[in-house]
Predict the 3D structure of the following.
Amino acid sequence: MTAPVIAAGGGRAALRRNFWRGVWRVLKRKPSRMVGMVIVLGFAFMGVFGPMFYPDPLPRDTAALYAPPSWEHPFGTDFEGTDVLALLVTGSRYVLLTALVTAVITVVVGAAIGLFAGFRRGRWDTVLMRITDMKLTIPGLPLLLVLSTIWKFTSALEMGLVLGLLGWGGVARAVRSQTLSLRERGFIEAARGLGLSTTHIIGRELLPSMAPFVAMNMLIAVTGAVYAQVGLFFLGVLPFEANNWGVMLNLAVFGGGAMSSPAALPYLMAPLLAILLLTLGIVLVVDAMDEIFNPRLREE
Amino acid sequence: MKRLAAVAALLGLAAVTACSGSTGDKPAAGGSGSGGGLYTTIDGLKPGLDVNGPINPWNPKGNAFLGFNAMRIAWSKNHLTDPNQFYPGIAASWEIAPDNSSITLHLHPGNKWSDGKPVTAEDVKFSIALAYTQGSTAFAIDPGAAGAASEVEVVDEKTVKITQDMDNPSVTFVRGVMDSYIVPQHVWGSVLPADFWDKLKAARGEGAEAEKAREEITALSEKVLAFAPPKDVSAGPFTLERMNPSEALLVKNKNFYNAANVGPDQVKMLNYTGNEQIWNYLIAGKLDNAPFTAVPADVMKRITTTQGNGVVKGYSPVSLGMAFNQSKKPYDNVHVRRGLAYLINRDEVTKIASPEGGTPAVTTTGIHQKPAAEWLGADLAALEPYKLDVAKAEEEFKEAGLKKEGGKWTLPDGTPWKFTVNVPAPFSDWISGAKAVTSQLTAAGIDAEVVTTADYPLYLKELAEGKYDVGFWLIALGPAPYNIYQRLYGVSNGWSILGGKLKHAEPGKNGNWMGGPETIEVDGAKVNPGELTAKLNSASGDEQKKIIGQLAKAANQDLPVVQLWDYVNTQFVNTNRFTGFPENDSDLLRQPSGVWIQLGMVKKKQ
C-alpha cells in the first residue's frame, strides 16, 4: 500500500529534477541567457556580500577629489575623494533589496487580487477591479514626491513597500483577464465539477498556468523599482546617502557638473552602467524564462 | 531654487545702518557712440522665466528684472562697514538728516518713463504706498515697528522727504527707503483706493478702527502682487519687449535719464532652472555676465578656457554657518559645540564644497572675515580660531560628560549620540559640505549623518519649527551690524523687538529654534547677546564698534553656530562683445549687471 505514495513522491522529485535540467538546457541554448544569468547572480552577490568587502566608513582621499579612473579607482573618486566603485558596491544592497521587496509585493498582491477577482467574478470582481481602477488613476511619481516630504524612506523595506503598493494595479488587471479566459477551459470546469475548493483551484490549477507571466512581471518590476527609487533620489527628494545610486547621479550632475565637464563623468557613469547592466541581465533572463514556462516555445 | 538665488534673495532682505549725511554719486561719464549690440545675461533672482508672470517687481514670478526694467530709489554699495552708501537709481541725490530722522530724495531732472510721461515725486509717494501693502522695514504698518517711516511728503515735483518715526528709530531706515521699487502712478493708479493715506493714518492708531484699517491695507497686498500692467512702462534703462519660455528680450528705454551712456541696445535674459544650465551657457560663451553661481572646480576650468570669459571676484556679505538647536541635547552644552568646532576641518570642508565660491572661515565671529578685520582689528587674532585639534575636542566632550565607548562617543547617560545635520536638497554645495563635516566627525568617533529636505522653503519652515538638531544657516548678512548679529541673536534665537521693546521668547515659541539661553557667559561675565544686538539698531561710532567686539567674542565662545566658510562673490563676464565690466573687489559686483549698465559702465566692444 505504500508503493503508490513512494511513487508519487519520487515522481515529484523527478519532475523537479527535470525542471531544473530543463532550465539548464534552456539557458545553455543561447549564450546571451547565460550572460543574463551571470549578471543577475552577480548583482545578487554584490547586494548580499559586497558591503562586507569594504570598511565602514569608506576611506576618503581629500587630495584626490574627482580623480580620473585608475587601477586603484576604476571609476575614479567622488566629491570628497571616496572610491566610486566602493560607493556603488556598498550602495547596491539598498537598491536591490528595495527592488526585490517591490517586485514581491507587486506580484503577490497583483496576482492574488487578479486571480481572486477573475475566478469569483460577480460582486467580488466588481469591487476589486474598481479598487484597482482607483489605484491605477493615482499618478505614482507625484504621489511619491508628496509622500517623500513626510516620510523619509530610510529603510529599503519601507521604500520597497511603498513602491510595491503603488505598482500592483497593472499586474492585477492582466492576471484577471488571463484568469477569465482560463476559468472557461475544460480542466478548470473539471476541477469545479469535482467539487475542489476555490483555494485549490486558484492555487493548484490556475496559478501554475499563470506562473510564467507572473515570474516575468516580477523581474520587470525589479527594473521598474530600480528606476523609480533611483529617480526619486536623483531628484533629491529622498534622504541623502552618499552611496545611493540616485544620490550619486544627482551629485555628479548638479554638484560635479558631469554634463558640463569630464571630471565627474566616471562618477556619473558608474551608477548608470550598473543600472544598464542590471536591466540587460534581467531582460536576458526574462527571455530564458519565457521559454522555460511556455511549452510552445521549447525547441526540443 | 539654487543656492545663488537663495543668497541673492536674502541679500535683498538685508537692510542697513549708519547715520551720516551723504549725496549720490554722479553717473559715470561715458563716451557716446559706443552703444549698440545685444547683451545676454541671466537674472540671478529668477530661476525659470514665467511668460505669464506680470511685469510687477513685487511679484516673485514677475517679469521685472532688477536693474534693467525694475528700478529702486538707489542701489546699495553694501560697503564693508558703512551701509549708507548708494549709487543713484530713481533718485539722483539725497540728504540724510544727521540723526537719521529723515531722508530727502532729489529725482533726476528730466527723467521720463518709457511712455514719455515724467517721473515725479508723486510716483515715488505712490510706490511707497504700494510698499506699505507688502510691509518692509521702512514701510511697516504695525504701530511701533522699528525704523518705520512716519511721513512721506512731496516737497516739489522732483523732491520727496521721508521722515522716520523717532519713537522707535532704526539704523535700517535709510536702506529700507532706498530699496523701494518705483513704478508709474499713471499705470498702477487703480490698484490703491483714493483714501489710502487716510487709511494708513488710521492704521497707525489703536483700537478697533485701526485694526480694521490695518486689515484693509494688508488685504490690498494680494491685489498689488497680482497686478499686471498691459505693457511695460519702465524708468529703467530697458523695457520688456517680448518673451518666450526660453528668453526675455528687453530693449533700450530712450527716455532713461542716462540713456546716452547705456551701452547695449538690447538685453536678452536667458531662462535657467539649475546651475548646470548656467555652466553650459558660460562654457558656450553665450553670457556677457552671470551673477554669483556655485561652480565645481573642473567646470570652472572649462568656463575660463572659453574665449573672452573672465572671472571677477569680490566681497559677498554672506557666510555659511552650521547652527545648533540648543533645546536639543547634547547641543545645549557649550562644550559639545566647542568640541564639534575643534573636530571640523574648515579648510577641507571648503575645498570639497565650495572651492571657487568660498574661503574657509578664519574663526567663528558671526561676521564675514573681511568686515571682521575692519570691525575688530587686532582683536580678531585674539579670538579662539578653533583649528582642527582632536585632543582639545576630546577634552571639551569629556567636560560635557560625554563618554567614549568602543571608539564611539555616547551621551552622558550612555545612550548613543547620533549627530544629524540637515540641509536643503537643491543646494549641492551645502550637501557636499555637510557630507564632508559628517565624514570628519565619523572619523572622530561620532555617529554622524546628513539628512536632506526637499526644498529650501520647506527647509526653512522645518528649521523654524525646531525639527532639526543641526542645520546649515546663512549668517553674517551685512553690512549693517544689526543685520549681521540678528542672524545669531535675533528672532531665531528668541529675541524680537515688538513695539519698541525687546522680548525674549522661550525655545520653540515665536520662531525661536536656536533655543539658546537669554544670558551667556563671556570671559566669566554674564552677557545678554540679544540685548547687545538690539542696541546695534541705534548705536553708532565707537559704541557700535565696542558692541560688535563684545558680540564677536560672545559668538566665538558661545558658538550658537560654527562658521564654516565665507562666500566669495564669484561672477563671470565675457569681453568678446562688451567691455567696461567692474574690476575685482568692486562694490558694484553686489548689484545686478543692469546697474552697471545704467550707470554707463558697460560699452560695446569697438
